Amino acid sequence: MEFFCDLEVDVNSEETFMVDKNFVSKFLLVFSVTINLSTFPFLVKILASYSGRLCKLFGKSKGTTTSLKVVFHDFPGGAECFELMLRFCYNFGRTEITPSNITLLRCAAEFMEMKSSVSGAGNLFEQTEKSFEEMRYWTWSELLMALKQCQGLLPASDSSGILERCLDSLVGRLALASEASPCPSTSSPDSSGFRFSCDTKSTESLKTVFSRTSWWFEDLLFLSPVMVEMLVKSMVSRKFDHAIISRFLVYFQKSKSCTASSSEKCRNVETVIDMLYILDQSCVSCKSLFEIHRVALNLKLSKSSRNKLENMIGSQLDQATLDNLLVPSPYGMNHLYDVNLVLRFLKVFLREGFCHLSAMRLNKVASLMDLYIAEVAPDPYLKPLIFLALVTALPESARDSYDEIYGAVDMYLEVHSGLSEEEKMKICCALNHEKLSAESCIQLSQNPKFPSSSAVQALISQQFKLKSLLHATNNTKSCADSSSRATEAGNESKKDKSEEQVVLFAGSLDLQADSKNLRAHLQGMQWRVMELEKVCRKMQIQMAKIMKSRAPSQSHSRSLPRLCS
Ligand SMILES: *[C@@H]1O[C@H](CO)[C@@H](O)[C@H](O)[C@H]1NC(C)=O
Ligand SMILES: *[C@@H]1O[C@H](CO)[C@@H](O)[C@H](O)[C@H]1NC(C)=O
Ligand SMILES: CC(=O)N[C@H]1CO[C@H](CO)[C@@H](O)[C@@H]1O
């Protein structure tokens, strides 16, 4: 049967293939040119003999039309891939499948249903399958090329499983490389069996390790955010070193940010954040997180990614620096720095619970907050409640000294002179007076910006501190007197002096006095407090000496005063 018709195949509205009779011999594709085709049945037969899909289509229209148009909307890989598939057919299934076209052919084979039930043993699907078995012999660049094609063939490459195979192969090679002889270009003798992981931070070899483990970063910059996500998930499931993954993600984000449009940047940053979030957080550098945070300030990130980023930063707030925290306020807020952000960081940091946080980490954050509070205190727009929230965010045990806070409160009261007495009181209550040094206490007691009750509190606590210190010293002394008189006969006179002063101190304090007279009273007392501080310091030194001299026999010298009393 012979009839004239055109075979027109519209592939994804990209290109229209008009097939002419010369095509059979020349493998020529003519685009958008209509040529009558006398040998159509022959072409139909060839194509249909390989493709189940076309077979079904042509079968339906058999003999009834003179012009046939097939429209594919979602042909994987588009025109290029369709052409490869045609070549395979017109070459009667004899073709070489290489890493450069295997993924395209495989996707085409699946789409066109080119399987054994249609064309027997030589079908395209099985031929690609055989070639995939050779994957482990592919070179690195062949693998990269295949991966690149997979990216272009999404989502077909994902649903067919070839993307997963390529990623698996890639991650397998990287894991092998980072474990055994890492960088292909370096052949240092010490490289065998070397393994870098986040908890072995050998300072000396960090640089070489970095170049050894990061040689592939550049090669994978072509990945789209979706592919990065798949790669990282594959790495994580294969227990790939999280420190390296983390560095790759940061590198990826940085490298992409210079060229990308704002919406691309946003997607890149979101992906990087989401992936960093699934890693072991001890492998994610706080510095990098802040860098990402800075980039993200100008982007409209999703709420979920923003929260994740803040959570990651908050949980390692002890690694942050003052500069990191001085983030400008978001548009529309009138205070200078984004204080609410820092409060959110703190909330995350403390979420672990005080008992699970080491004192060292807590102290570090407290010192950082002292610096931060001092920095934001002069901001005239900073509301008392927010300032108070900053000061009270950490438990009192986090700070050994409240001197810095005293300085910040002083500054805050200076700038915000219009505060009500009640507001002032609230802020001053946040000061732990017992943890103020003598100097700060004295300054506070003379400071007209502070409510007088705060001044009283400062001095009472100072007095209390001295008393207990003197008490302890007295006990130690009496103990020393009775048990080791011989070793310190020469220091006797000094102790007598200090005892005199204790008496003086105890006799002159009457803090219940009327608060009008108080300031004058307190000022007069000031020098005595200073003197007593000096004495105390001397006594402490002496005490330490006594303890030392008795150290061999006393294993727990700290409880010495109590033992003797
Ligand atoms: C696949 O690529 C190889 C090498 O580039 C080529 O020889 C072969 O013909 C290609 N296969 C098809 C079906 O086009
Ligand atoms: C010091 O110790 C003696 C007894 O050793 C005691 O009588 C005296 O009250 C103590 N003084 C103080 C200030 O605790
Ligand atoms: C501060 C002081 O005078 N210390 C002396 C206490 O007594 C011992 C033993 O006599 C001396 O060695 C110290 O110098």
Task: Give an overview of the whole structure.
The chain is mainly alpha-helical and 565 residues long. The chain folds into 5 domains: 114 residues, Potassium Channel Kv1.1, Chain A (2-Layer Sandwich), CATH 3.30.710; 107 residues, no CATH class; 75 residues, no CATH class; 130 residues, no CATH class; 41 residues, no CATH class. The chain is 60% helix and 3% strand. It contains 27 helices and 4 strands. The chain has a 4-stranded mixed beta sheet. The longest helix is centred in the last third of the chain and has 35 residues. The protein is elongated and about 115 Å long. The chain starts with 5 loop residues before the first strand and ends with a helix. The N terminus and C terminus are likely disordered. Bound molecules: 2-acetamido-2-deoxy-beta-D-glucopyranose (3 copies). One 2-acetamido-2-deoxy-beta-D-glucopyranose binds next to helix 24. InterPro entries: NPH3/RPT2-like, NPH3_dom, SKP1/BTB/POZ_sf. Keywords: Membrane, Transmembrane, Transmembrane helix, Ubl conjugation pathway. Pathway: Protein modification; protein ubiquitination.
Describe the SSE topology.
Layout: E1 6-11, E2 15-19, H1 23-26, E3 30-31, H2 40-50, H3 52-60, E4 67-72, H4 78-90, H5 102-111, H6 116-119, H7 124-132, H8 140-152, H9 156-160, H10 162-179, H11 206-214, H12 225-237, H13 242-257, H14 262-277, H15 286-296, H16 303-315, H17 322-325, H18 339-351, H19 359-376, H20 384-392, H21 403-415, H22 421-429, H23 438-446, H24 452-483, H25 492-508, H26 515-549, H27 560-564
Parallel strand pairs: 1-4
Antiparallel strand pairs: 1-2, 2-3
Transmembrane segments: 27-48
Domain NPH3: 214-465
Family: Belongs to the NPH3 family.
